[in-house]
Amino acid sequence: MTITALKNRISELDGEREDILLRSTEGEKLDSDRIREIRSEVATLETELADKQAERDNATVVVSVGSTSEARYAAPGTVVDRNTDLDGLFGTPSAAEIAEARSKFNATLKGEREERAPQGVSVPAEGGHTAPIHTANEVFRLVSGRLVCAQAGARIVLYQEGSGQKWILPKLDSRPEATWRDEHAVITEDSATFSTETLTPKSLASLTKVSWELAQDSNVDMGSLVIAETATNMALTLDRAALAGSGVDPEPSGILTNGGIQTIDLAGAVLDHDAVASGFLAVQELDYSPTAMLVSHKRYAQLVNEKASGSGEWIGRSPLLGEAGKKGFQILASSQLDDDEILIGDFSNLVIGYRQNITAKVLDQLFAANGQIGYIVAARADVAIMRPDAFVQLTNPAAIV
User: pTM, whole model, 2 decimals?
Assistant: First the structure.
């Protein structure tokens, strides 16, 4: 597959995954098997794409036309010279033919530059930066695909260029109420109230330095490796902010630190299927559709591997949770939660908003005095909880044995 075909296929798969997640928030059963298939195929395609881009970037040829010199892609080692190859192709060109060829050639180069520009790849006029293999859109996809909150059903929104420093999201504080009426009777005004949530992008960034020797001796592309690993760490940091961010600048405020969420005190009881069901029902009774329960990895192992107290049933055999699972309810593990942080909710009421043009740059001059190359990945993001009562925290569970 060509680079364009690979990108188009990855985009199609991402769209399919987002559509599956969206339908699950609307009551349709989450197709977990298909989600896993998509992730596997995307990972394979991204590896192939990175290889092809690296091959392309190593296949540069200088083409001289008249007094101008431009760089284009060709087979490795190929050199095209106007006085030989071009004359051989076109015969002896006239001045008009040379001018037309130069115009078409420059237009092609201009199109290639414009195609890259919206993806966030730029090289300053003074030099000093090398465009990375991962474009901004690819880094955005890497980060979003690793968000556990997104798997739980959180909505990802992108700030539009020129939308200003803040983005205002309208929300309902109380739902509209419909009432029965007689023919010709006045329609009763409902008591729905509205307010807003404000997304104010906060900066999240990483700088990694690699020695020239390691970059030269490595049998993998260091830029791709560093940026992919940074994207994973950035997703973890965003997950922590969305779940339990302090709200103290510059960190966003998360669900567990929001005073409007529900709480159920387990008073030292074991986290069994009855406890999980109580949280599920607390959300459901307010007319929300719980999409997920998020716990630490140790709690997840406890739920999956240990029998519940009392009845001795396995946690997965709870009739209520079994039916909920058929409709897309998930139990997910996150390394960003402590063992006593247990959260159940309708995660469609969690919004993670950030600018699309995530910055990913290679600095090959700034640290040259130390024989190093720098890699920067930076984003601006914020979190909004549209309906805090759509979430419930189970507090004071028994310690994990």
Answer: 0.61
